[in-house]
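Bug report

Summary: C-alpha cells for Aminopeptidase differ between web form and batch submission.
Environment: batch mode, default settings.
Steps: 1) Submit the sequence below via batch. 2) Compare with the web form result.

Sequence submitted:
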Amino acid sequence: MKHIRMPLFVWFSIVLLIAVAPISLSAQESFIQKIEKNNSVSGIKSLDTSRFPEKYVMYLTQPLDHRHPEKGSFRQRVIVGHVGYDRPTVIVTEGYGAAYALRPTYREELSDLFDANMIFVEHRYFLESTPEPCDWQYLTAANSAEDLHAVRETFKALYPGKWISTGISKGGQTSLLYRAFFPDDVDVSVPYVAPLCYAREDGRHEPFLRRAGTEADRKKIEDFQLEVLKRKARLLPRFEKICAEKNYTFRAPLEEIYDFCVLEYSFSIWQWGTDIHSIPEISASDDILLDHLLAISGPSYFIADSPTLSFFVQAARELGYYGYDISPFKPYLSIKTSKDYLRRLMLPEDLKNMKFDKTLSKQIVRFLKKNDPKMIFIYGQNDPWTAAGVTWLKDKKNIHVFVEPGGSHLARIGTMPENQKQKVMSLLKGWLEE
C-alpha cells in the first residue's frame, strides 16, 4: 500500500484540537462544580450555543413568599451564558417566560456589546417557573424583586465584576422595580421601553395616541377603524368562523370582542412601529380589511385563559395598564363603555374582585425622585407605552432618559441614531470602567 503523507496543516489542526479540548471540558466542569455548591441550584444542563463559549439552563429553589418561607417553594428557571469569571455580568429581568433565551443563537444586546456574562431569569408564574398549585396571592412585585436578589446572591461570588440589570417592556419594568427594592444589587440598570403605570387604566395612553405621528397618520388609522366597524355586519361572520377554527373562547360576546380588537388597533399599530402605508384604503375588499385588522390586533389577545394570564393578574393588581378612547366610535360599538375591560375580559371569575394597589407605583416614583442610581431608560417616540414612561425625570446626574425619534416598542441601543447610541455607549463604558 502506498504511504500517504499527511499535510503539515492537518498535523497542526490535530495538535490544536488535543490541546484545546481538555481546556474546554475543564472549564465546563469548573463552572458546574462551582454553581452546584449552592444548595438551591438543581437540574443544571449544558445548552447548545453559537453566541457564548458556554451556556447552561438550571433551576433555583425560591420561596413562594420571601417573607414567609414556610409557605412553600417553587423552581425558577435561569439561563446562563458564561463568558468568563473576570467579565461584567448582565442579569436579564425577563417579565414573562424564558423559552426564547434557550435558542442557540440568542444573546441579549448588552451582553453582546460588552462581551459580558448573561444571567437570564424567567419571571415567577410563567412557563416552567409556575408554582404548583398556582396560588395568585404570591405573584407580587416585591416577591419578584426578592427572586432576582436571590439569583444575584447565588452568582455574586462567581461573578465579582460589574453587574448590569436590564429587561424589555414588562422586563424593563421588572428591572426598574428590582432597582427600587434592591438599589445596591447592581451597578447599572438599563430598562428598555419600561412603563410605570399609576392605575389599572392609567389614563395617559389615550391622549398620547391623539398626538402620535402626523395628523394624516392618525386620520388614516381612525378611518380604518371606522370602516371595519361600519362593515361589522359583513365581517363578523368570517371573524366568528376564524375564532371557531382556532377554538378561541372569550369572557364576552363575540361582537364585543370584535369591537375591542378595533379599539386595540391604534395602540398596537403604533406600539410595533407598523408602516402606516400598510393600512388598506377604506375602499378595499372585506377580506383585505379583515385580514389587516387580524394581523395588527387579532382576537387571540382577548381569549379566556390566555398564556399571559399571569401578566394580566399583575397588571390588574399593581403594575397597571391602559384604557381605550371610544368617543370617535360610539355609534358603531356594541359596548357602552370600555372601562374596566381588563378585569371583565382578562381575569378569571375568582379574581374579578381584585382591587388595584397604587403602593408600588408611588414607591418607585419616590425612589426615582429621591435617588440617582446609574440608570439608562430607552423609549420609542411613538410607542404608546412611552406615555407611562419616566420621561418626566429631569436634572439627574446618573439617570438618563433616551427617546428614539420615531421609535416604537422595538427601541434598542442598536436602533438609535448614531449620536444617541454613542452617548449611551460612552456612559456605559465609563460606568463599567469605574
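Above is the batch result. After comparison, the two runs are identical; trailing whitespace caused the diff. The chain is about 40% helix and 15% strand. The first helix runs from residue 8 to 35.
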